[in-house]
Design goal:
Layout: E1 18-20, E2 26-30, H1 37-52, E3 57-61, H2 71-76, H3 78-81, H4 87-100, E4 105-107, H5 129-134, H6 139-150, E5 155-158, E6 162-165, H7 192-201, H8 207-221, E7 227-230, E8 239-242, E9 246-249, E10 260-265, H9 273-280, E11 281-283
Parallel strand pairs: 1-5, 2-3, 3-4, 6-7, 7-9
Antiparallel strand pairs: 2-10, 5-6, 8-9, 10-11
Helix pairs in contact: 4-6
The chain binds manganese (II) ion.
């Protein structure tokens, strides 16, 4: 088990990049937040309420925590993108939460986050989003963000049947151990560079490629894994299934009424995407008022 959260900032980052979750309790799964503080706070409130009630809840944040929309995107697609980019406040808040709940809050890195660790810089809303965010941060904020990301994970395993990551790993992921090490990986001939980048950037895999990857990782961890839960993509319906073994609950890029997250019962086997959909998929902002 990875125990990096017990350490204080400024220590050498741990290099174990995957974590095995327990086989009981609840797992909250959220995907890309892209600086949306309102969505972050709504999820945090659910986690805090569960902890207050004595529920053993883990929260997996599947990457792309930072880099919100620019003015143009806000104007052109207000249903999806009209919110303030509060990446600095979100990072502060998550850092603070991670200090309080080091074993229950799991920061899984996305391709936007790792730009701040020396990976290629993304340019979705600004020509250089890493630079655009870092000029907004105080030295202390920058330090906290670097701590959060340099200690970040790349994959989580839930024994009930799930592999969780930002993108969808494929043939390059020969084992979870290949992900371990300092980030970014050196561009050497070994497979680590390919495995890390595929996991961060791939929107999906064909069903057979994902299935054989899941078989390999199942053998490695000793649990039968059937579904990849991932982020990285967008879908206005707030949920989609690919290849019957890859799913994404969507926050960023879905209209408010469709934003979804997962609340997984870690003690119950998940063998299919439909099972997740029928039992564990939740709206982040349920409509208020009487039900019709
Ligand atoms: Mn992404």
């Amino acid at each position: 088990m990875c125990r990096h959260g017990q350490e204080r900032p400024n220590v050498r980052p741990v290099t174990k990049r995957s974590l095995l979750l327990p086989d009981r309790g609840t797992l909250l799964v959220s995907t890309d937040l892209h600086g949306n503080l309102e969505d972050f706070l709504a999820l945090e409130a659910k986690a805090e309420a569960a902890w207050r009630a004595g529920i053993d809840l883990h929260w997996a944040l599947l990457g792309d925590l930072v880099h919100g929309p620019d003015e143009r995107a806000r104007r052109q697609m207000p249903d999806l993108y009209d919110y303030d980019d509060e990446s600095p406040a979100l990072v502060d808040r998550l850092f603070e939460l991670k200090q309080r709940q080091p074993q229950r809050v799991h920061v899984v890195l996305g391709n936007h986050d790792v730009g701040h660790l020396g990976f290629p810089h993304t340019s979705k809303f600004h020509p250089d989003e890493v630079e655009a965010l870092e000029v907004r941060l105080s030295a202390a904020q920058h330090e906290r963000m670097r701590w959060l990301f340099s200690n970040g994970l790349l994959a989580l395993v839930a024994p009930c049947g799930l592999l969780l990551s930002h993108g969808v790993p494929g043939d390059s992921l020969t084992s979870l151990a290949v992900l371990d090490g300092v980030l970014p990986p050196t561009k050497d001939p070994d497979s680590r560079f390919r495995a890390v980048n595929e996991l961060l950037w791939s929107y999906g895999q064909s069903a057979p490629v994902a299935a054989s990857m899941l078989e390999r990782i199942s053998d490695e961890v000793g649990h039968r894994l059937r579904v990849v839960v991932h982020g990285h993509d967008r879908d206005q319906s707030g949920w989609y299934i690919e290849g019957d073994n890859q799913v994404q609950p969507v926050l960023f890029g879905a209209p408010r009424a469709n934003k979804r997250y997962l609340e997984v019962d870690l003690s119950r086997r998940v063998d299919s995407c439909r099972h997740l959909e029928s039992d564990m998929l939740r709206h982040l902002h349920p409509l208020q008022g009487p039900r019709s």
